[in-house]
Amino acid sequence: MKKLLILIAGGVTFIIALCMLGPMIGLAFSGLLILAAMYFYTKSHTTFSKVIWIILGVIGASSAIANIPAIIGIVAVVILYVLYRKWKDEEMTVEHRSSKSNDPFTNFEREWSNLTK
Predict the structure, then answer these.
(1) Could you tell me where the Basic and acidic residues compositional bias lies (predicted)?
(2) What pLDDT does residue 7 have?
């Protein structure tokens, strides 16, 4: 039953992530435009080129604001990743170590407990 619920939740989040693929690409493109504008603004020397890069940065920022719904898609991708990790989670076995080992820290703890008795 648990695997069925994970499968259904994974299907729903996959559909949401697929529907938000366009805004996520637009947000990534506008982020790259902002980064490029900031980079070239710091490299430019003339006032005209700085104004041009500021205008391109504002265009990128307005495009990023328009693509805010892409955050829903990003959250859906993160949830899909978490559900995938839950799906692949296998029962872990714990190995029991014997008290007689060659580990110096274990030996120290054992000897210390014998000395403080």
Answers:
(1) 108-117
(2) 85
* Rg from Cα positions in the chain: 27
* Burial track 41-76 (b if 16+ CB lie within 10 A, e otherwise): beeeeeeeeeeebeebbeebeebbeebeebeebeeb
Give tens-digit pLDDT for 66-108.
999 899 999 999 999 888 888 887 554 555 555 556 666 677 7
Model pLDDT, residue 9: 87
C-alpha distances (whole Å) from 41 to each of 28, 32, 35, 52, 98 are: 20, 14, 10, 9, 64
- Rounded Cα distance between 71 and 41, Å, is 28
Alpha-carbon span 58 to 50, nearest angstrom: 12
**Where exactly are the structural domains of the chain?**
2-89
Distance of CA 88 to the CA centre of its chain: 18
pLDDT, averaged across the chain: 85
